[in-house]
Amino acid sequence: MSMMRLIRANTSSCFLLSTTARTFSTSSASASASAAAIEAERSIKEGGRNNWSRDEIKSVYDSPILDLLFHAAQVHRHAHNFREVQQCTLLSVKTGGCSEDCAYCPQSSRYNTGVKSQKLLSKDAVLEAALKAKEAGSTRFCMGAAWRDTVGRKTNFKQILEYVKEIRGMGMEVCCTLGMIEKQQAEELKEAGLTAYNHNLDTSREYYPNIITTRSYDERLETLKHVREAGINVCSGGIIGLGEAEDDRVGLLHTLATLPTHPESVPINALLAMKGTPLEEQKPVEVWEMIRMIASARITMPKAMVRLSAGRVKFTIPEQALCFLAGANSIFTGDKLLTTPNNDFDADQQMFKLLGLIPKAPDFSNDAKGKDFEAENCEVAVSN
Ligand code: SF4
């Protein structure tokens, strides 16, 4: 072959190669250009936003699962130290006998679940539990009371304020979940040193009446408004596995991600179907459903602490690892979550070691926030 013919032959094979390469890169680019990829890139470049349309969130949620997982992991690494996981301990300080009809809850007095109504735990019992949690590595202590609201519970509420002060004084973040609260109560909790208030939206606005009839979605948002106005961090998420459609999961994420300020914590719970409740026959949530929810929450609310909450006990360590990869960076530790079982403490410590996770230090930066924080914006949340 002459030199000229050789060059021509090589040029042509190079052309073929480069054409093949371009074809390959074009198809790989289009394969990766899912809504998850596009929105993750946008979240990384521009930060969180609260003008999401429901369709946009649906497109993220519907992205191919491995792509969703991959891009959520990118957002997670951009917005957080991916090794840090917050450890919270949740104690039921007042168990059972609740007047509400939440269909998943064994503490409702309307269902025959065997959970007995108890009085508010004493100060000694609560502080002892908080100390134990702190010694075990928890940085946030959350107190839950099975109440519809705190109106008319002046004595108990005063006691709770005292518990908050004491636990905050122990160098822990303090969270409460006491049902609906008024503006005045939120301010008193803030004054006592409360870090965060938990009040979940549970599900979408449309599906909500199938789960709770004794308080409205707007009442829930009203409580979140009071919490936000008082300058307390908002902890609000939901539960999957209630019999809702995937569109309801998208609806829940849409409500949370379009609040004027994203919740600082977003717990994602998988239903633990409890005997005696109307949802006792629900089938268990699969880990892929949790991953899809967590990853979508991570992309749409990049800065939030996304908590792998109730139901974690059903997942193996490799399954939990996928949830952490998808963007979960908070868990409940301790053997009970209110009245439902939770993971063994030692097993959690081993999991941290195995996965190279480290406990997140407490954050008190919110202490300086004033009570007028975002007050005007919160109006929008309630009227949505
Ligand atoms: S979830 Fe809370 S408000 Fe609903 S029944 Fe249970 S304790 Fe009561």
TrEMBL record:
Residue positions binding [2Fe-2S] cluster: C142, C175, C235, R307
Enzyme Commission number(s) of this protein: 2.8.1.6
Organism: Daucus carota subsp. sativus
InterPro entries recorded: Aldolase_TIM, BATS_dom, Biotin_synth/BioAB, Biotin_synthase, Elp3/MiaA/NifB-like_rSAM, rSAM, rSAM_sf
CDD domains named in the record: Radical_SAM
Pfam families listed in its UniProt record: BATS, Radical_SAM
PROSITE patterns in the record: RADICAL_SAM
Positions of the Radical SAM core domain: 83-312
Enzyme's top EC category: transferase
Gene3D superfamilies according to UniProt: Aldolase class I
Lineage, opening ranks: Eukaryota, Viridiplantae, Streptophyta, Embryophyta, Tracheophyta
A Gene Ontology cellular-component term: mitochondrion
Gene Ontology terms for molecular function: 2 iron, 2 sulfur cluster binding; 4 iron, 4 sulfur cluster binding; biotin synthase activity; metal ion binding
Listed GO biological process terms: biotin biosynthetic process
Name of the molecule in the record: biotin synthase
